[in-house]
Amino acid sequence: MKSLQTGHIGLNVTDLPRSVAFYRRVLGLETVTESTTPSPFALLGRDGRLVVTLWQQSTGTHDTTRPGLHHLSFQVDTLEEVHEAERVLKELGAGFRYDGVVPHREGGTSGGIFFHDPDGTRLEIFTPEGVDATGAAAPSTEAPTCGFF
């Protein structure tokens, strides 16, 4: 393989309309396709690129003690974009792992916000630089913040 990139992420959800509304609002995604057969699903994208597929075929909440997805991370260009996402998430009542924007590691310039979607899937929105200007401390000095400790 000469080049390799993530294509799209597929997530199981318990309530498709709720999850579609969440991901559209928080990430600014558009519905590309939505169907109720054979199993309810929605394909969400941006600028002609598929980003997330949601499949309504599960119950309960994301179980972090089982093998599988640890967390899903989205990169934005600026700290202001991270703050805007944080504002929207607070309006939606999302649960945050840490208070505010935090660096990925102590003294690092990258960092972001760490939160949960309506089904408990751990998510991150981060920027590669500028977080050091906030003066926030890394939640853990022993491991990367995205470990959701």
UniProtKB/TrEMBL annotation:
Q: Which UniProt keywords apply?
A: Metal-binding
Q: Does the keyword Methyltransferase apply?
A: no
Picking any one GO molecular function of the record gives:
lactoylglutathione lyase activity
Cite the InterPro entries for this sequence.
Fosfomycin_Res_Enzymes (IPR051332), Glyas_Bleomycin-R_OHBP_Dase (IPR029068), Glyas_Fos-R_dOase_dom (IPR004360), Glyoxalase_1_CS (IPR018146), VOC_core (IPR037523)
Q: Which residues form the VOC domain?
A: 5-128
Asked whether the keyword Metal-binding is assigned, the reply is: yes
User: Which PANTHER family does this chain map to?
Assistant: GLYOXALASE_BLEOMYCIN RESISTANCE PROTEIN_DIOXYGENASE, LYASE, PUTATIVE-RELATED-RELATED
Protein name per Swiss-Prot or TrEMBL: VOC family protein
Q: What does the organism's lineage look like at the top?
A: Bacteria, Bacillati, Actinomycetota, Actinomycetes, Kitasatosporales
